[in-house]
Amino acid sequence: EPKYLKPILRPYDYIGSTRYVDFDTTRSVYPTDPTKCHISHVVADTESWEQKMAQALEEMDEVVCYVKNHNLGFTIPYTLNGEDKNYIPDFLVRVQDRAEEPLNLIIEVTGEKKKDKAAKVSTARNLWVPAINNHGGFGCWAFLEISDPWDAKNTIRAALRGGKKEVRSHGL
């Protein structure tokens, strides 16, 4: 009998929501389109990357909704050099790619390569996504790393076109 990865859910509040998100920030922000994101602003970690990514997502008809994963509590646990850590992906995006159910994309906007990036990406793509998809109770998920937010629309569309079967079973 084959073995499947299954997620370990928090015993309480395992279903996250953006409904009660409320925080102050001193960082740069990008105002969002309320038809695509009901959190009023994207909090930027850089001078332009998150802003450009948000703009691209808002311009895509395929995007049902998105949120910058800032102060949402959405983390993916991973291990680096024997130490437990939590990875906070950049964006959570729901796309309608002509399948019956929407696809939930975890998008990481990758700039400089840091030593922990490979562990984060590998864990998200090869462990977290298959585990949550095997659970079956949270829709279909995939992970996508984007290295050029100015070309994000093409990258997302190419990934959806090129890997539809793989996306729906294992992630991008």
Automatic annotation (TrEMBL):
Gene3D superfamilies: 3.40.91.30. Residues 39-118 form the Type III restriction enzyme C-terminal endonuclease domain. GO terms for molecular function: type III site-specific deoxyribonuclease activity. This is Type III restriction enzyme C-terminal endonuclease domain-containing protein.
